[in-house]
Every structure is written in C-alpha cells, then in structure tokens.
Amino acid sequence: MLDLERFLPYRLSVLSNRISADIAKLYDTRFGLSIPEWRVIAVLAKRPGLSATEVAQRTAMDKVAVSRAVSSLLDDGRIQRDTDGDDRRKSVLRLSEAGRAVYDEVAPKALAYEQKLLDTLRPEERQALDRLLARMEQVTENLGGA
C-alpha cells in the first residue's frame, strides 16, 4: 500500500508548495503577483528573449499557466513581447522597467529565504543535497513518466 507521507514525489511536492507559498508572501501582498507570474519574471530576469513555450519548458509549468501569467504580466506592463530578430514568426519576452523593479526588490528577499533554509544544513549536507537534486533532475528527464 502506498504510504503517502513517505512517498518521495508527494514529500517533494508538499515541501515545494510550502516554500513557494512562503516566498509568495514576499511578492503577493506588495505586487499582487501569483506564483506563476513570479516564476516568469524570475526566468526572464536571467534569460531575456525566451518565448512563452521556452519559459514553460524551463519552469516545468503547464503551458496554460504560463500563458495566463504572461498575459497578466503583459497587461500590467511588467513584461514586453517582441518579435525575435532571427525568426520573425517567434515572439520573445523581456522584462520591462516595471518588471525589472519587481525582480530587483523580490529576488534578494527570496535569496535570503533560501539562505535561511540552507543555514539549517551543514556544508557537507548542502553539497550532498545539491548533488542528489541534480541527479534526480537528470533521472526524471530520462524517465519521462515511466
């Protein structure tokens, strides 16, 4: 019988949801952003010029959630949509000045939250966690729902 509380995918999901909800407090009240909207902003801050499809791939978010987030962020003037210089059929996204301002305010607070989590681990535990997560990420790319 499946023991949900010991089932790794469930445990990771619960932990991820808790962390995301905590970090969401940093941007929801002040900026009215949803978790998908913040993720789009964070991805575009690091990699401007991605398409919505590429954002969905990088975040492993549902395409519909990304589409809604992109639409909302465009309406709010936090991101801009341009035509790709190499492929005129492709739309690419970038942060606007308003989006950059949100990122510049929230990112340091999100990093401070991460640091508080990591401070509970010894240095060797942090390294092990990083290695294990990287390995599991690689494995999940190859499993593909098998």
Q: Please outline the major beta sheet.
A: 2 strands, antiparallel
Would you give the CATH topology? Arc Repressor Mutant, subunit A
Annotation field: number of helices: 6
Integer tally of domains: 1
Named at the architecture level, the CATH assignment is: Orthogonal Bundle
Description:
It is a single chain. 68% of the residues lie in helices and 7% in strands. With 146 residues, the protein is mainly alpha-helical. A two-stranded antiparallel ribbon has the order 1-2. Helix 1 packs across helix 5 and helix 2 packs across helix 5. The longest helix has 24 residues. The model has no long low-confidence stretch (mean pLDDT 93).
